[in-house]
Write a structure and sequence with these properties.
The chain has 249 residues and is mainly alpha-helical. Helices cover 75% and strands 0% of the residues. It is built from 13 helices and no strands. It is globular. The termini are far apart.
Amino acid sequence: MSVQESETPGTQGRAYWLRRGIMVAARLPIFVMAFTFLGIGGLAREAGVPLGAALLSTVTIWAGPAQVIYFGALINGVALPAIALSISLSSIRLLPMCVSLLPVLRQSAGSRLTLLYAMHQVAVTVWAESIQAIRQIPPHGRMPWFMGLAHSLVVAALIATWIGYTLAATLPHAFAAGLLFITPIYFTSTLARNAREPIDWIALSSGFVLAPSLKGIVSAGFDLMIIGLVGGTAAWLWQKRIRRHGAHL
């Protein structure tokens, strides 16, 4: 069932949109999240982190790549301040995602604290599922829908972290590492699925071209920020040129 129901969407309450968000998560996204965090749980066990701390890291860090950095650094004995800095730099890539969702969530946030909490829930999978669909939802239903989606994925990630931690002794290392690639593959396919205009495809293409060329030149986290700024700006300028020429046809 799509967002457009037989009843007028604007008449639906917050509980309705909360359920709709949960239903979206319960399709493919929840399985992508679960398989990814199986690998995170196994890595946490290998790092010698207690189960409680592993689960807490899933809730507080809420980013698979940053958790890989965290547990990998612990395994290698890196100092805690350096780990914190590395995680912060890695999470910079989420800033543009937060900024793109802020305008559409602000109207139904209720308070600044609620909006800040919602921004913490932004992760790659959450953003990929939200960025197009949430604009079709009436303003009053956007925050409940978003919370239903995000919290469902958090719960799935917590359960998967626990299972992965418990099964770490039996999971082959190659298999556990391979699970971490599910999210970026899903993210890319979701962006391609949601692409509607030339600007979307240009931005995607720019990312694929710039990513290999920046690897090894700038540190992790900043590379994605630069890709977003350069590729996004190039896509916007090209789209503007297409529309200008189209207007003269």
